[in-house]
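Handoff note, outgoing to incoming analyst
You'll be picking up this chain. Sequence as last confirmed:
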Amino acid sequence: MNQTEAEFSYRLWRHDGAQGELIPLLQSAQDHFGYIPRRAIKYISGVAKVPESKIYGVITFYSQFRLQPMGKHAIRMCTGTACHVANAGMLLETIEDELGIEVNGTTEDGTFTLFSVACIGCCSLAPVMMVDDDTHGSLTPVTTRRIVRKVRRKTLAGEKKAAAEKPEEDAAASPAKE
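Most recent structure output, in case you need it:
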């Protein structure tokens, strides 16, 4: 058993593996892995004595659960009544075109996952989207693209900075040659 599996097993042990705790078990799996992988479903099935088919039924019923890894950034486009009337559908298509994915999809580089949500609760700012915890309102196709591109640029800049710093860390950790 590797460290990841051991940590996950401990989380399940804390829940006692009871059938009535299926949702908390699934939440623990998703918290641990970032989504619910097949191996976690098999493991939970064995521990909680719940058929895998029932577990899949619960996962697909509740929108909080994911069977695929999520991107680094979650974009949630509101398609509730106020946003729908304010052309949220067109903005959703704008985001899909910009990222090359459909709703509930993740970009190939793992940067973005796109969601359509029923209501964000900012109807006076319609149309509205959230990027992670940041809310953006009164959107147009131009401002929507601008926001997505800005997040992408910041993400790429952060990755480049991290990559540039990594060799220094590796060199500092290596013993000096004499």
